[in-house]
Write a structure and sequence with these properties.
- The chain is α/β, with parallel strands linked by helices.
- The protein has 10 helices and 13 strands.
- It has 2 domains: 265 residues, Rossmann fold (3-Layer(aba) Sandwich); 64 residues, no CATH class.
- Strands 1, 2, 3, 4, 5, 6, 7 and 8 form an 8-stranded mixed beta sheet that branches.
- The chain is globular, with a radius of gyration of 20 Å.
């Protein structure tokens, strides 16, 4: 796929469907060209969100279970599982299973993954007619019983599309997963829905990220109803000088600079040495001339903190410019930050995002 091959009417139709909520009505892919055009544009933007999530997981020193099977549920074009495989190495997984309610999406995702990772076994399932759920036949063919664990469950941008039966199946798959990586748009409604699912799952999983604690999510407290847990991924700087990306942003009516997302990373394994005294900034810090202000989440709950510029001018500037996940160890007095250190990757790791696939 190149910019000259983009099917712009297909992208316009898909965009209109997403904005109008029609994506929840069933499969919306009409041709392989739909998927290729989407994967090259909107899918790549989703990939940048996954890059940010995977960079944060490297900061936290997290790795998927060795030799795990990946199940990419609701795979779409398959951008999420390809990003995970590229970040951690396809050789460290046993196989990739792809499921989507669209046979076209499954075929596209499988073919693309096979080209990128030819040594990795890839299996595809499609729903039975008039059914949008994963079939028992597929699970039996793949030697996965209803009781067998799934190594790594990947979920990406599905919550605003799921009918109740599909959400129930996804909950059942979560109950069988050894680890879960789940990324969604950073809207108020979707983020809070994901937060509710977090509360259901935290009794059975260790919360790897974005949380810096294992307690109940403070954002879901009644007094915090206006807040939501979301973050912003840094898009590659070179796209702003690329006329094709600029044209895409203008036609789609989106701000290329803004990539809000929310996510969950969960693992049944408990880390040997969990990090302590970490805080996660929610959203973006606000900068004023004498101070910066931001919403902070840590083991003590949710709080609006301020950093006077005079207290730490370097940190004040860093909060505005860093592209790293906003995870800090603060020095503070009450709600005033006196200084802090940005979380750095453990030895042998890097926080840089993986190159686009």
């Amino acid at each position: 796929m190149t910019w000259n091959e983009i099917d712009w009417p297909a992208l316009d139709r898909l965009r209109a469907g997403f904005l109008q909520g029609a994506a929840a009505d069933g499969p919306y892919w009409q041709s392989p060209a739909d998927l290729a055009s989407y994967d090259f544009t909107y899918g790549e933007r989703i990939g940048w969100k996954w890059d940010a999530v995977l960079a944060e997981l490297r900061l936290r020193g997290w790795h998927p279970p060795a030799g795990a099977t990946i199940l990419d549920w609701g795979c779409g074009s398959g951008i999420a599982s390809r990003r995970v495989l590229a970040a951690y190495g396809a050789q460290n997984f046993s196989r990739l299973l792809l499921w989507d309610h669209s046979p076209l999406a499954c075929a596209f995702a499988a073919a693309t993954a096979a080209r990128r990772f030819p040594a990795l076994p890839v299996s595809v399932t499609t729903p039975q007619p008039e059914c949008h759920l994963m079939s028992d036949t597929f699970l039996e063919q793949e030697n996965i019983s209803r009781a067998e664990p799934i190594g790594l469950l990947i979920v990406s941008h599905v919550l605003n599309e799921l009918p109740p039966a599909a959400l129930a199946e996804l909950r059942a798959l979560c109950a069988r997963a050894s680890a879960i990586l789940w990324v969604e748009p950073g809207t108020h409604a979707v983020s809070r829905h994901l937060g509710v699912l977090r509360e259901e799952l935290r009794a059975h999983f260790h919360l790897v990220a974005p949380c810096t604690h294992q307690h109940a999510c403070p954002i879901l407290a009644p007094e915090n109803a206006r807040d939501w847990c979301h973050h912003f991924a840094p898009p590659p700087s070179e796209i702003f000088a690329n006329p094709d990306w600029v044209k895409f942003g203008q036609r789609a009516g989106i701000d290329l600079r803004s990539l809000p997302y929310c996510f969950l990373a969960l693992d049944r394994r408990i880390p040997a040495a969990p990090a302590e005294n970490l805080s996660r900034i929610i959203g973006r810090p606000e900068h004023f001339k004498p101070y910066a202000r931001f919403l902070n989440c840590d083991a003590t709950g949710l709080a609006e903190l301020t950093l006077p510029k005079r207290a730490d001018p370097v940190l004040y500037k860093q909060l505005d410019r860093t592209k790293s996940p906003l995870i800090y160890r603060w020095r503070r007095e009450g709600d005033e930050v006196l200084g802090g250190e940005l979380l750095s990757p453990p030895p042998g790791e890097t926080s840089e995002s993986h190159p686009a696939d």
